[in-house]
């Protein structure tokens, strides 16, 4: 068989040609990318740098250029990957190390950033940018340390302060943003906290920390059912998320205990309700809004149990937690009214009416102001020792008893000081009887009118002895007391003369 000559192609020549061609093409893409970069059209620059990398994947500068573009687009995690690939291809690529460090810093990895900047300074000791960025990394570490200490001490304002400054250096750090959001929630600044968490969730809907913070805000705003949904979702994303687990447990326990208390209250089992609200308050001291409601609920149960002083304290605790809680002001004001602390009641009703100018609130305020005005006058009911609903006969009997008790003749053997005091009381008893035994005067007195404005009221100019004689019908002679030793101490009796 004749030999057949086979032309074996030389494979290296086309490959060399293709490689050179690809490199020229890659360089052209890079130049176009540079042009778009200089025009700040970073999206187009990214596209052309990507084409350059596809054409020549071993060129470190192309990855470096794309990393710079991604940094301008705030895509720091992708930029970090490109920077790391660049220095893997060329460990002496100073800009690659610098960009890697900046990406680490922006993502909040201060230690890793510092190592990169130190590598740059090994390559170029006088590099001022690396020197400054290394200082920034050190500063960031210090803010992290301060924030950690502040969180342990529950100084949440300090943590927010530190995180704001840390984020000025590490703008893409989700960890810092979450810590800030959590502390904002713990400070009661829920809209701000939710805004931060929502921004993260828009970029990463599976971020368990952001889901936890969203749930925490809802939990602290007393939207417990919705909060539990977020906590459960966070635990689905990260089953070992301890904060979400604790918050979820507390939320469920708080809801259950509060509902038990409400059920007992509606069933008129006020003692049980009071105890259940107390137990609920012990579950989570950080839940300000829910605890304010629990304090107010316990105050309502306490008022039913006639624990008025404790009810006032509970209302004050509720107001301390939430100074906009109208229901707590109203409950405390009613307790003040029930304990005749009218000035305090007026103050609370004024606060309520300034906030919500309703006709009901206006009526409550006027009623309290009237009771305050009445309380500053002599309390004729107390003078006679009768209730405000006393009948005419009860008023007469009370006058008979008090008039005989304080009559000056009965105390003729007492010291001048005692005689003066008893004479004063005798006069007050007569004055009280004069008002309360007269239907018109009594009505005006009960309505809070000033009797001094009444033309028929003679004030303190009347003669208490005349009232006494008229009441007892002293016919034909005086009304005298026997204070002889035979009568016995404290057992004075009277005789008609």
Mean pLDDT: 88
The major beta sheet can be summarized as: 2 strands, antiparallel
Number of strands: 2
Order of helices and strands: HHHHHHHHHHHHHHHHHHHHHHHHEE
Report how far the terminal alpha carbons are from each other. 175 Å
Shape: rod-shaped
Describe the structure.
This protein has 497 residues and is an all-alpha fold. Helices cover 72% and strands 2% of the residues. A two-stranded antiparallel sheet has the order 1-2. Helix 1 packs antiparallel against helix 2 (42-55), helix 5 packs antiparallel against helix 6 (110-123) and helix 22 packs across helix 24 (464-472). It is rod-shaped and about 135 Å long. The termini are far apart. Residues 1-17 and 483-497 have low confidence and may be disordered.
Brief digest:
The protein is mainly α.
Spell out the key features of this protein.
497 residues; mainly alpha; two-stranded antiparallel sheet; 24 helices; 72% helix; disordered N terminus
């Amino acid at each position: 068989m004749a030999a057949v000559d086979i032309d074996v192609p030389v494979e290296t020549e086309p490959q060399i040609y293709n490689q050179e061609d690809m490199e020229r093409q890659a360089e052209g893409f890079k130049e176009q990318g540079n042009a778009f970069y200089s025009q700040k059209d970073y999206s187009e620059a990214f596209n052309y740098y990507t084409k350059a990398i596809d054409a020549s994947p071993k060129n470190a500068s192309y990855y470096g250029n794309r990393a710079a573009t991604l940094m301008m687009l705030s895509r720091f995690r992708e930029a970090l990957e490109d920077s790391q690939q660049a220095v893997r291809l060329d460990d002496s690529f100073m800009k690659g190390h610098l960009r890697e460090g900046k990406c680490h810093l922006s993502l909040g990895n201060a230690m890793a950033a510092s190592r990169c900047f130190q590598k740059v300074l090994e390559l170029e000791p006088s590099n001022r940018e690396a020197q400054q960025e290394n200082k920034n990394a050190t500063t960031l570490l210090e803010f992290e340390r301060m924030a950690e200490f502040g969180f342990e001490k529950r100084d949440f304002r300090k943590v927010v302060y530190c995180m704001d400054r840390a984020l000025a250096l590490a703008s893409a750090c989700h960890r810092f943003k979450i810590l800030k959001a959590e502390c904002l929630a713990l400070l009661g600044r829920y809209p701000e906290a939710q805004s931060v968490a929502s921004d993260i969730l828009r970029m990463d809907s599976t971020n368990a920390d952001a889901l936890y913070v969203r749930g925490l805000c809802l939990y602290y705003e007393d939207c417990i059912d919705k909060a539990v949904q977020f906590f459960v979702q966070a635990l689905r994303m990260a089953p070992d998320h301890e904060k979400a687990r604790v918050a979820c447990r507390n939320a469920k326990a708080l809801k259950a205990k509060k509902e038990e208390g409400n059920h007992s209250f509606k069933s008129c089992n006020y003692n049980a309700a009071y105890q259940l609200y107390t137990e609920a308050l012990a579950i989570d001291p950080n839940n300000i809004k829910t605890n304010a409601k629990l304090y107010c609920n316990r105050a309502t149960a306490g008022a039913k149990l006639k624990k008025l002083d404790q009810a006032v304290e509970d209302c004050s605790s509720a107001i301390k937690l939430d100074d906009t809680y109208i229901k707590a002001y109203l409950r405390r004001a009613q307790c003040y009214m029930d304990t005749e602390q009218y000035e305090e009641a007026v103050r609370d009703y004024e606060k309520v009416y300034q906030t919500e100018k309703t006709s009901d609130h206006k009526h409550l305020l006027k009623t309290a102001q009237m009771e305050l005005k009445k309380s500053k006058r002599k309390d004729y009911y107390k003078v006679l020792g009768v209730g405000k609903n006393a009948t005419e006969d009860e008023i007469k009997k009370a006058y008979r008893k008090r008039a005989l008790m304080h009559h000056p003749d009965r105390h003729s053997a007492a010291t001048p000081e005692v005689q003066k005091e008893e004479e004063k009381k005798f006069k007050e008893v007569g004055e009280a009887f004069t008002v309360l035994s007269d239907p018109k005067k009594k009505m005006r007195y009960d309505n809070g009118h000033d009797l001094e404005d009444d033309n028929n009221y003679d004030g303190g100019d009347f003669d208490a002895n005349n009232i006494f004689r008229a009441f007892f019908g002293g016919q034909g002679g005086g009304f005298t007391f026997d204070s002889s030793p035979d009568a016995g101490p404290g057992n004075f009796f009277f005789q008609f003369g």
